[in-house]
């Protein structure tokens, strides 16, 4: 299997898993999904500089070619931003869970979570 | 190099940590410092505007790296217009915040506000696509904080949606950047414009996919249909002052669409198999319909103002998405008006809600309150502006838009939808005005109240600015036309950034 195929399929699998999780109804899987999406994007950005093996990024006298250093810088920036944002979403999701009493993304309880008292309160 | 160009970035970037680290426990000092920062920003923006009005495009190379390797800031008429608008709006909104004491309801309001300004100014000035992404993130992160300021379950719930939607948007933005970088090998906008035009046919599909994703992200920020669902909930559940500042946030998306649409992906002549710009017109018209119909269906004044943002964005992009000089000029004249008029609606909703206490800004009959006549008059003027009736600038702007699209094949659609939505907007605002100010129910009047002049002054100034925009329509349209011509002929922009070596 070629390197391109491995990287491309890794990006694809991560994106698919991320999308699936991001569309879930509870905040925790959504946060995980967003994290996976950002991994997929980081890999993808990394690959936009073309995949090469064993080439120097900046300068080497004996070098026959160079790898593109810019996407690596972009990936670093993207990693920092997505790391900060993931931390923020986790705190926000926790806060929202504590204030609304449910971890559903729309802040409403699903029928499966309802206890008998809730059901009675609803009918009353 | 003209170092004035870096001031709109440097000032808030320095001010925010100062406010955060040293003035955290000194409310009075931090208010003064924040006001001072916004005032200086406005002066700097006006000076930059005067320089840009001469028609010269200026580039500022950070670290003096030769382009296209370093990051550049670029000032042309469009960026200068957005800078002035941002600074003016920020100053008035900050005044409202201080007058109503919103900054006392939680921590770190002022540092977040400065970071927000940093992100906005950066997005308007940068000439590099990845840098644009970074500034988008800066303004989004600050906006998450501002949006949640004051808290409460409803705000948190809307906040979770807002943050998640924008995180997915940022992911798409990065994918788009990756595709475009992979196909063209540059992220400098001026350089990319040349390389997209000269791209080999086998790269066209990649570029088109990147462009489509990029426009999807900008459409998400501008809240165009079908990516609009986050906006009404977010803007109506955050504090009114934050929502008023966010009126310019959705215009960042509009700005990015106009900038990349004219510079990198011009509608004709680059031979892409398909271009995202073709999809913009129907989406914009649908956005206008949804926005104004939403205004009619709203239960609260702030919700109505949020839908007004949507409607005005739709109207704006209906003309802007044609990307030719005449409609662009109309768009640029209507843009400051639509921003200020929707922001004024948000601020007035807050003023009215504070006087009606228990009734808040609900569109339901409540008790009479002191200062009702003056508040009603302000609401009337803001409503005339938001709906686009004469004699205010909204009317002039819509007239310019209608006049500019006459030669477009789809003109009956544009005319019909803009006129019909204006009528719906008038109906909606007339209904809320009559319910709020005429349909009085007996009830306990609010006892202790701050004087109306103190809390309503920023909103009144916004309305005054709108009136000035109508009175000075001649010079304003002249500037808008010049800016549109500059956008339609991007060679000056490219030469200012890359030098005339090509």
Number of helices of chain B: 19
What gross morphology of chain B would you assign? globular
The stretches of 5 or more residues of chain B where confidence is low (pLDDT under 50) are none
Order of helices and strands of chain A: HHHH
Structural account:
The complex is a heterodimer of chains A (124) and B (502). Chain A has 124 residues and is mostly helical. The model of chain A has no long low-confidence stretch (mean pLDDT 83). Chain A has four helices and no strands. Chain A has helices at residues 3-22, 27-47, 70-100, 116-123. Chain B has two domains: 1-272, no CATH class; 276-443 and 450-471. Chain B contains 19 helices and two strands. In chain B, strands 1-2 form a two-stranded antiparallel ribbon. The model of chain B has no long low-confidence stretch (mean pLDDT 87). Chain B has helices spanning 7-21, 27-52, 77-100, 109-125, 129-148, 153-184, 189-197, 204-222, 230-237, 240-263, 277-297, 301-320, 325-356, 372-387, 393-404, 411-437, 452-471, 473-488, 491-498, and strands at 58-61, 72-75. The A-B interface holds A 22, 27, 30, 34, 37-38, 41, 44-45, 47-48, 50, 70-71, 74, 77-78, 81-82, 84-85, 88-89, 92-93, 95-96, 99-100, 105-107 and B 130, 134, 137, 141, 144, 148, 151-153, 156-157, 159-161, 163-164, 167-168, 170-171, 174-175, 177-179, 181-182, 187.
